[in-house]
């Protein structure tokens, strides 16, 4: 067991020194002050157990070296104890290696010393001479101390000398009998108190009772009381009569406070801020409501409700127990009561000494039992006891009857009784149970009476709900009872074998158990039982489950339920959400609504935002609830109308976004009709807005801080140049001042106060847009370490009970320390141990612990890798790249606090094993460290880090190229048929009859195509090697309901061509003519009708003679060009989509069969050998019938066989929510559908006839587009959008196409 040395830090006081509490308390005591469980012989008496003394045999040793021995010291009066030291017996092989410390005021009802949430085991000695001293982390007060040896020398036996360090302690004590109340009367009748300090100590065996109470006639009150052995503080600084301000505030702390041990309470209040401290654990909170003063009348009462007060409701009891050192705002209440300065008339007998309890608790662990005698051969069993535990199951009592067994167990939080009686081969069994949730740590009373044909079980004295049975039963007692465990063999063994918890008030066959006699060994027997002590611990108080996680516990441990909190881990410490939209983009996510948690494990909860991933930026949008164009009337400078703007996140959450963002903006608009805004240029302002920090701002959208102008005043284009806002001209017509607020430290807008709408005809309409922020500086905050001796230093890391560290790193070095922070013996370190191993090591006082994760691939690959480490009181976890994970549970007993004092070093450990590379987004307990700022002033470290594409380039899909940026990357989709931040959005177009896209590969083709002056050409000149192809890659998707059609046609200067067509029956055909064959090589890809209005996709590859074609999601099919065919596609000239207009050698049959009227429908993501002709055409500002649309995208999987022949076919509705349930509705839908189809057909026919009538008669149909030469010379990146008759299309017609 490693032991930590605790250094007490005394506050610095001027002009005086505080006396140190470090006197030797045991050495001056007489021999008689020392007692023990036993003595080896006279020379080994406990009186010789003084540190560094050699009297007698040189120390104390017991008769037997076992776990039932103890050494006790009576300090003569209550003392404050701050440290303890031990030694072995002088010049011997006897010493104690591990021990527990118990303390008490009376020599009874012992309390074990607690530390770090456990009954503490101190490390002792390793020889007989060296003294080992331990400072107590929490000083204790008591008269009696008892050391219980746990382990001792292997060569000898238990041997002990000790010293206790501390100082004298004195306090006024008052005993409260449950009747008396101390009244502290105020000097004036009504007190208006802005600041309170209340301090006291109490001890009690009761779980309920009012400790203090004060109230006022205005409804203010303060009450401190025990409820179910927890401390409840209720305070109300005032509510109003309308109920809009509710001041009641209730806070609970502590538990198991009915243990009859001293507990310290301090309440500090200043206005609405309260510190509520119990036994050094402080809760900070603000009272509800809006009032600051506590208005009390007459008095404050201690120990119960005042008799002058209102009737005590809800059966609230007065306090029964002891209090000491009661202080209220500097007045010593206990001293005033002793001097009879206060009203104590309600006490029957006021006592200034603490009356002790007569209970004798017994403490059981999983291997304990207590055997006690009862009455034998009696026809009635009558037993009773009280117990407390956290475990839902356990054996409370077991007895072998004369002819059967009796068992009382705890089963799933209920008390269950099982009686088995066997008479003359006949077995009678009775099972009864009562209660629920009895494993809540509270004392519960059990009473069982069983006799002939009758049994009754009562829980907590509630006779009304007692469980009775009158089953046939004959009982003869066996005379012996086992409590808390039974490990012997028996014919009917108990369902449970052991119990972890405490018992007291044990009654067996109507006789109280004499546990003092048991302790002396006169009566009964026991094993591993602690007598006169209940060492129960509430492991959920203080609650280590963070962020609202629910704590559940057993006797030995606790667990946290994190469901619905947004956090995960053993203590609900780590957020399950990313910190920003930027982080989601770098996980490859597209635009959507996401939960974000900007401070990770910090106090801010997660919240929803809209993330818009654009090509080069990531926008975070937070909506508000102010309706667009909110009308405002009736406001003036004296009585402004204040419009509250509430957001979908709290102000702290929104501030977290704006703080880390690169840029924020918010649109604000003021529409006015005779309503002045800023009253420019010199007047007193009418309307202002309130931003972050409740600060008023007197500028408007489009302007900036300190400039009392609107956007038009900045741009000098206001409707009336005398004013700096349009609205300030005060015109009798609607005007508007609007623009973007971009100073992010002022955003978001939380209120707008409007002040000029109270004149006749005066009106205004206000719009406040959503807050939009772009970028995340925290996510990209990086530093590059260029020399092994360079490091950054920051303030000491504060992570005592829970710590989390996360960052990204990239390096080409094989090892290096990421960060380190040291304490006295404690430390924490994260390190790249080798090219494949990251380690997380720390020491909280129990010895060094190291976790390591091993990567399957090298980590020094100059790519970003993510490290997350967490350490809490339950476990330590290390995670790498969301893939590799290592964890280690914390020891059940041991230190839990990480105490560091050195600076935090990032990039090295004391100048050793320095890290070479980049560290980014270093976040510790939710706070991002500003590496860039520190790097600017540190030699060997540079701010920022280049090279993000090696890690994030994989998110650029479909051939998109990753482009490096200082903060991150973007995807260049220029050479792809896609768009969007990740090149995943299909680019497609809607083709009407006659619409075509022409893409020229040869420069002379572009120059020669010069017949149509209204069209433009897209050209992409090829090198000589690219003109003669031996391989093609073709991909596109389409949807149409018309056949036949040419989808794609690639022509050449020779007779070679490639065509993808839909035949008359809607089937898909690919035609290759590369020369050498009499007829073009045709491939019928699919015999089904693909002109069915559904999207379909085709991917085709040719390499020499091998052709592979994949339709939709079906497996690719291979084809082979005949041996006679050429493999070169010579002099590729032009690519057509939708229709062919070409001079020269073309397939006349193809044109005749499929080229008229042209493709009608959608083409999407068209790609040919790295060229995206359709996207290029759409990105060029062309006029025509090509409307951008992705209606050809999202190919559907077509069943490989018809529904009629498919044995697995079943009818499914397209949308479950729209299933028509009954025949009448279905028939109606069918009739409606037929009518719609008929109307649509008539309309289409009319449109076709009108168009036919207005065609230019005598137009010569060539296969060449007119006037293409002009546009060809105009730009290399333009496309022809042609028609049969190249007429311009008016705006309404274009809208019709869309």
Shape: elongated
How many helices in DSSP terms? 15
What proportion strand?
A: 35-45%
Number of distinct beta strands: 84
* Backbone structural class: mainly beta
Largest β sheet strand count, sense and barrel closure: 13 strands, antiparallel
Q: Which residue ranges are poorly predicted, with pLDDT under 50 across at least 5 consecutive positions?
A: 1-17, 1005-1016, 1195-1229, 1254-1280, 1282-1298
* Span between termini: 78 Å
Average pLDDT over all residues = 85
**Radius of gyration, whole Å:** 43 Å
Helix content: under 10%
Q: Which assembly state applies to the chains in this document?
A: single chain
Transmembrane segments: 1229-1250
Domain F5/8 type C: 16-167
Membrane topology: Single-pass type I membrane protein
Subcellular location: Cell junction, Paranodal septate junction; Membrane
Tell me what you see in this structure:
This is Contactin associated protein 2. Residues 536-573, 946-984 form the EGF-like domain. Keywords: Cell adhesion, Cell junction, Disulfide bond, EGF-like domain, Glycoprotein, Membrane, Phosphoprotein, Repeat, Signal, Transmembrane, Transmembrane helix. Residues 173-354, 359-534, 781-945, 1006-1191 form the Laminin G domain. The protein is mainly beta and 1298 residues long. The chain is built from 15 helices and 84 strands. Strands 24, 25, 26, 27, 28, 29, 30, 31, 32, 33, 34, 35 and 36 form a 13-stranded antiparallel beta sheet that branches. Strands 1, 2, 3, 4, 5, 8, 9 and 10 form an eight-stranded antiparallel beta sheet that branches. Strands 52, 54, 59, 60, 61, 63, 64 and 65 form an eight-stranded antiparallel beta sheet that branches.
